[in-house]
Amino acid sequence: MNFDLTDDQRAIQRTAGEFLAARYKPEELRRLALEEERGFTDEQWKAIAELGWPGLVVSEAHGGLGLGIVELVVVQEQLGYALAPTPFLSDVGAALLLEAGGEDETAAEYLPGVATGERRGTVAVWDADAGWSPTHSALVPGGEDGQPTLTGTKVAVADAAAADFIVVSGADGRHFVVDAGASGLEIEATEALDPTRRLYSVSLSETPARELSLAPEARRRAYEALTTALAAESVGVAQRAMEMATEYAKERQQFGRPIGAYQAISHPCAQMLLETEGARSVTLYAAWALDHEPDTSQLAAAMAKSYAGEAGWRVTAAALQVHGGIGFTFEHDLHFFLKRARANLHAFGDSRWHRRRVADLAGV
Amino acid sequence: MNFDLTDDQRAIQRTAGEFLAARYKPEELRRLALEEERGFTDEQWKAIAELGWPGLVVSEAHGGLGLGIVELVVVQEQLGYALAPTPFLSDVGAALLLEAGGEDETAAEYLPGVATGERRGTVAVWDADAGWSPTHSALVPGGEDGQPTLTGTKVAVADAAAADFIVVSGADGRHFVVDAGASGLEIEATEALDPTRRLYSVSLSETPARELSLAPEARRRAYEALTTALAAESVGVAQRAMEMATEYAKERQQFGRPIGAYQAISHPCAQMLLETEGARSVTLYAAWALDHEPDTSQLAAAMAKSYAGEAGWRVTAAALQVHGGIGFTFEHDLHFFLKRARANLHAFGDSRWHRRRVADLAGV
Amino acid sequence: MDLTLSPQEEAFRDELRGWLDEHHPGAEPEGDEAGFEFRRSWQKTLHQAGWAGVSWPKEYGGRGASLIEQAIYNEEVTRAKAPAAVNVLGLAMGGPTVIAHGSEEQRKRYLEPILSAEEIWCQGFSEPESGSDLASLKTKAERHGDEWVVTGQKVWTTLAHHAKWCMLVARTDPDAPKHQGLTYFLMDMDQDAVQVRPLAQITGEAEFNELFLEEARIPHANIVGGEGNGWPVAITTLMHERATLAFGLQIQVKIALGELMEKARSTTVNGGSAAEDEIIRDRLAQLYIESEVLRLNAYRGLTHTMKHGVPGPEGSLGKWQWADVNQALTELALDIAGPQALLRSDDWTYRFLRARANSIEGGTTEILKNIVAERVLGLPRLR
Amino acid sequence: MDLTLSPQEEAFRDELRGWLDEHHPGAEPEGDEAGFEFRRSWQKTLHQAGWAGVSWPKEYGGRGASLIEQAIYNEEVTRAKAPAAVNVLGLAMGGPTVIAHGSEEQRKRYLEPILSAEEIWCQGFSEPESGSDLASLKTKAERHGDEWVVTGQKVWTTLAHHAKWCMLVARTDPDAPKHQGLTYFLMDMDQDAVQVRPLAQITGEAEFNELFLEEARIPHANIVGGEGNGWPVAITTLMHERATLAFGLQIQVKIALGELMEKARSTTVNGGSAAEDEIIRDRLAQLYIESEVLRLNAYRGLTHTMKHGVPGPEGSLGKWQWADVNQALTELALDIAGPQALLRSDDWTYRFLRARANSIEGGTTEILKNIVAERVLGLPRLR
Known about the structure:
The complex is a heterotetramer, with 2 copies of chain A (364 residues) and 2 copies of chain C (383 residues). Chain A has helices at residues 7-23, 26-34, 42-50, 69-82, 88-100, 105-116, 216-251, 263-292, 294-323, 334-346, 351-361; strands spanning 121-124, 126-127, 142-144, 147-158, 165-169, 175-179, 185-190, 199-208, 210-212, 253-254, 257-258. Chain A is of the alpha+beta class. Chain A folds into 3 domains: 7-116, Acyl-CoA dehydrogenase/oxidase, N-terminal domain (Butyryl-Coa Dehydrogenase, subunit A, domain 1, Orthogonal Bundle), CATH 1.10.540; 121-213, Butyryl-CoA Dehydrogenase, subunit A, domain 2; 217-362, Butyryl-CoA Dehydrogenase, subunit A, domain 3 (Up-down Bundle), CATH 1.20.140. In chain C, a hairpin with an 8-residue loop joins strand 6 (194-199) and strand 7 (208-219). Chain C has helices at residues 7-23, 32-48, 67-79, 88-101, 104-115, 230-266, 278-308, 318-337, 347-355, 365-376; strands at residues 121-124, 140-144, 147-154, 165-171, 182-188, 194-199, 208-219, 223-224, 268-269, 272-273. Chain C is globular. Chain C is built from 10 helices and 10 strands.
């Protein structure tokens, strides 16, 4: 029993932390969010690729590092902490679904490029009128067998304009790969709650696609890994917001004292710690379960997404309150964290949706 | 527009407050709760009858004062504040249902005795396996037409052993009057969450009963008046618990200061005020609507019961936390208030049940 | 107890409602400048009909409305979705302060142009270093003959770029205790020494400004309430802010809740409408109750003020409770939206972000709780 | 990272589980006295098999178990619903304090009778006037030759009427600053100068006592850790309290939640089971998650302590979070019961009332938040 990262995992954590702190300083974050069309630069992606991250979850057989979900969440928490705008998570989502394809020949064709970072993917799940379910889709392919075509619209597809291919979910859990530039594919930027992650509306009109053959179990695990990675990102976001709030509470003077001396400030800060640490524990547990205990991983991932989603939001909202007026200004960085946290709460099933899964799986 | 009591209502309030403060001191409350079998004495009831309260909601035609629900909640808030153990509310419930009978001959027979306090009633609503609905019952009368008999069990019937008659709810909103001592009627004391209000299990076995003819509208209004009175009681309970907590917070010293100087104590006290005043506003509004605006009274009463029920509980629970260990001892009086508040939250439809009604009535 | 309007109050409401029906100027045009001119022109219309400054005494050009009538005014204007009068700070705060503390000359000079919207007012109280602790403000004014020379920085100043007059509180005696040594000035914004910089909020909009004062000049005659007496004068301004705004706020919440209920009914989730979902339904019902409590507390508070001259305990709670309710309401809007919450697909994203400031602006919830604990409950002060 | 048990840990668990299976003494008999003797006899059985004081070093009769093994021990004992060892305060607090701060003579004298339950221990720290502010305690000890004479009042003392020894902290130097001048004594309870009065709680039960000391006598040799050094010794006792109890608490919550889920399934409301109601279901799921977070934090804290010698930040959170969860859980039990909640029809009423103390006993939630804010987050102290 050892609820701690291994030395290798710590090394990944340290490298990620240092890399991101150096490359994604607050000014750069702001520049990418507000000025850079795709939200990142090719050079930044190249640097990420050099670290091997795009191949992190890709098996060695397909040219990746074949690391586990624990390693993924270690990186993902650091990305949340830095709030680095990057298509990494979209790409990981696509990689996870391709890997879930196992022996699938499409997967085998795409994964080596993904592993090196040369070929970037993203995942398109929500139909334009979707409900809360992260995977439900009404999209049914047309075309002939073996040559399916897709017609429909997906919303809130992250980094679609920068992707070389898109993994598209359809009815009955079927998934398809569509290449950038495929006929009938139109990608339109949409304004998002969170300006640090580019979202697009993706419309398909008789667009040729290749179906991925995914076993239900493998598909499920891919989504669980993705939501656990999202939970880890929220943990990093919460950690950073908590640090910003506590630092500010130590410095800011009102009525002759640092505001952190008042329980109206210090107790909410303590609550931030409670929620951030709890979110970290359950997220690490979910990651470990995905790697080592497939039977419990469904429940664990649902718990992680629900708890960390709420924690990210509550911590960033409380951090804004601690900051007072300055935290409400666009020129302060805190709002970027708040927006990411809230967006994460909703993405891939909101907290309540995942609690419903917990109820089902825990036998409530 | 005048959201304040009239001079007459203020006089009732003052009289009630002074009467109860003199007669129901904490020692007496404790004695009644723990030692007095029926939870009150005949002498106490007589004094209440002399004030005319049993006839408060009884029309002048039946020998009562014919006052409104505003007057009732004024008294009821004071009763909650004093936490006076008394069968008054059970009796009022019965009186309200009888009055709802209008021209009904049974009502006409019972009400004059109720008005003077000579004949005391109570209300039996919950079947032993009832759900949350305050009025749903599966009880169907047997016997011949015009001479119905009742067979079944009602639980949590307040003051049943001290009642001269019981108004019993049945299926389809039908209501019946059963006399104390009727054949097949058995009344058994049950241990209650709240020791200041005696509850009984009432079993009926081919027990003769008289059906009350109640128009649905009138029946509905009677229950709304009863739940509004219960809400007012919770307002009084909350007010008293808040006063106890703030007094204690001014006196109790820890770390060289009165604990009320710490925001961890003072802010919860402020929250108590917010909830107590809000509960008072909405309860007065519901009472006024029952008297003057029948169209909005359903919604208003549901809001009052829900909000005041929650407020009573939250305020007393927070007051206990402010008191710390001493508040957890049986010898301190606070727990009586906490238990009454929690019991009130559940009685006649819990807060959530009434919110569901609010949703229906407000067109959610 | 009588929660219906008196015949006189009803007449007031009917007259206003009829007038608003007839004179409603329609939707505000796009663009900040166009919107501003539209609202200025609307205020002129209001003024000409005697509907600007309803709470002001008649002798100063107001309507001398009772508190209930003022509440009715705010409810009706909000319900009619009529534009806000452009000179909101002058009408709600500056005018009443001049009436309460100004000299007769000042009343003659300043009041009429506030009502007519000829001169727009802004407020220079908050500073970056003094948020909740207003009395710690550092902007300094030194007397040079008949003029005061002012240097410092102010923040959260709405309408600064349109304003002619700024209600400015500055420190005139650095050696006095912090609540003394403050003076309340009316500063002419039309001078180079006053620089206005818009301050964008997390919503992306710039509703507020920063003011940079570099030896700005104010004639001695522009002091309101006397040199060194700025604190009580500023408190008058702030009390008018809270009292006047409370009514508009509770009605805004009710309107927003109605819109949210409509959104819940029209949003499809998992085959049904969001409004049919038990949890959404329960949260909407709770918000409905709380918005009613807000309204009822506000009316109870009015009655108390009318009878006793001061607000009752429930009067201190409105701003705080409103912030709680409005934040919960806008959060629920996102929960109802499901994955669409990721997009800025409708106005709710803006409202949701804007609501984060509700518990900060005009007195943080923490400060309001302090005030309730100390002044209403009589708990000991910490500081 | 590896959340499975090591072969050694698994062996420890299996051995214990097997032993508990075989030796479980069945249900506790009715009545306080009978229950006490039952638990005393159970502890003797534990001790004979080497299962009492598992965390104590082997040289003092313990098992020298690792932290993980201690956690496993607590989980297994709770899961087996085995009775609690009767001398819980001696095992969890008194013994470890004597081991850490006592003399070799004291260790020889006191430890073995703790393990065998021959001598029961109780704790005399809290006083009516000093709750959270423990160091303000007023019980006074004066030296008379080789004895100390102690007068004062203690409260919240469990097991006082059965105890032979009381861990008593008293003020030996009234002139010293409040954290100094305290001394930690082992007081013989078997003297007339010590009066025990049961203190009923809001549940109606009397789990605790008050102690009245009127010139009670304690030999000088019964001081632990030296005269005037009582504060750090008392802190050792309290740290052992929190560390040891944490594991039992989280597992108790999981068991209680399982029972609550069963109650929800078996309670019929409006034609269905309470467990099918969307809101009940959502609240149960949230409690399930929070109880898992509690468990996971506890294990993460253990790993941190084993690696770094001190608990990590998550270690300070368990008691506080447990109180929140257990209160929410017992409140939900009443909500599930519907009108039956008015009656004391099952054990949940007791649990619900008992849970109100969870945020007070063993450090109030307010104090725990202070500790987290100051010691973990480094925020400035207020006092």
